[in-house]
Amino acid sequence: VVCRKKRFAYDFFLCHHKAHAGAQARLLKILLQSKGAKQVFIDSDNLQDLDTLFDTVKFKIRVLLVYLTGMVLTRPWCAGEIFSAYKCNVKRVTVRTPGFVDPPIEMLSHVDQMLDESACKLA
Fold it and tell me: Could you tell me the pTM of the whole model?
């Protein structure tokens, strides 16, 4: 993973499972903007090219806000966003919902079994 000095285009990037938290992510965006965040990235508004998604996380955001719902860690794109932020030392903040349960430690050694690859092609 290549990381370089950033010129921030977004104050926040909202990482969320669209089917489980699309409306909540929209509300979070509105709340963040009402509190002074100038630019908040949410895929339904800002994503123009899927090929640039991880570069946006690595190079163009101040904070990755992960909206933790029961299924967010099963989404390959969400997992990639979190990994990209981690590898490039992007500040990460989580909002934990009641439906989120920490994955068991033994499951973490088999991450490939957690991911639902049916919605995207990563290769």
Answer: 0.83
